[in-house]
Amino acid sequence: MMDQLEQKIKSGLEGGEFDAVLAFGVDNFNYLTRTVLPFAEHYPTRRAVAVLPKEGASAVICPYDWSQAVKDQGWKGEIAAYDENEAVGVEAMVKSLEELLVSLGLDDRRLGLDGSRITKALMDRLNERFPKAEWQPVDPLLSDMRITKTPGETGLIERACKQADRGMVYALMHLEGAAENPGYTVAEFTERIRVHVNENGASGVGLLNTAFGTDGQMYYTPQRGWVKSGELFRMDVSAHYMGYWTNLGRMGVTGKPTAEQEKAYNENMRLKAAAHEMLKPGVAANEVYAHVARAAERQAIGFWKEAGIGHGVGASHHEPPYLNLSSSTELKPGMVIALDIQTYGPRQELIHKKDVYVITEEGNRKLSWYRSWDELYAVTGFRATH
User: Fold this and answer.
1) Residue 20: other Cβ atoms inside 10 A
2) Which residues of the chain have pLDDT under 50?
3) Which of 364, 27, 36, 314 is nearest to 157 (CA)?
4) Residue 385's pLDDT is what?
């Protein structure tokens, strides 16, 4: 399956008007090399770059401690590892890049790079170090390549969805019967989600947040306080498997849900059903948004419009296409969408049930199928094993 991705990348790059593509962004590096840099998104000052010439073998430039990980994941091209202690900032990486491009005869050629993934300071340094090179942005090309997925890519996302859902369910099992006795802090519960997502096979966790009670009025709050009975709570997590991401949101309640809490959640489900019927080929992203907005108006359901109602996932956990008022991108088979409609609870808590779908020829297929979450997860009962 991943051979299809390799052919897709090769075909896409061959059509460009440049002699090599350089990918500095963590997501683009993962996509083009089909390897994952360990925790790279958490170290923005460290730099790796994938160099894919139009002719000849590809190469990777990275710090020494990442080189073995790249090799272990099956990278067949050259690896130019550099010592970060040799120079300040990005200088060690730029020096290794210069040595590589000179050896390939590319230091004065047309070079494409993902300009939106680098700083102005780094771009200025590249212009200084390679005065004869002609730099061209390839961000639109990479975005077009990444926006539709091969079956192999979709399979990795589907697996990540299962790992994330299982991680949340396992963490909830710890909470059952112990919401107040002996008691859990919000930070401890959140950490249990991370641990169980990784234990279920994820190769990395990105966004991770839980919000209980009135803290849920904001999309993100610090992990503070104690878990209390009778509160709605939201769990948001993004995680990847072999560099392909899911991005899920789930809702629960500590104890038996009240009629008001159930009503608020059911309102969210109705708007989500309206959006779901529009997830099919030929429909523009803003048409999906407008359809939900009309349904909300007819049913007098308020929702958080500014955030849109979803986005793509793939080599990153938040990427095109975007389901909002301003995006006219047409949905096509192979696009993978995280559908995310956020409505309000009885205390103005943000409520959502964020699921991931792949657009198919017939409509769509749900990738986050491990648990339906069509009802609030009621944290009750007792788990003797936890």
Assistant:
1) 23
2) 1, 384-386
3) 314
4) 45
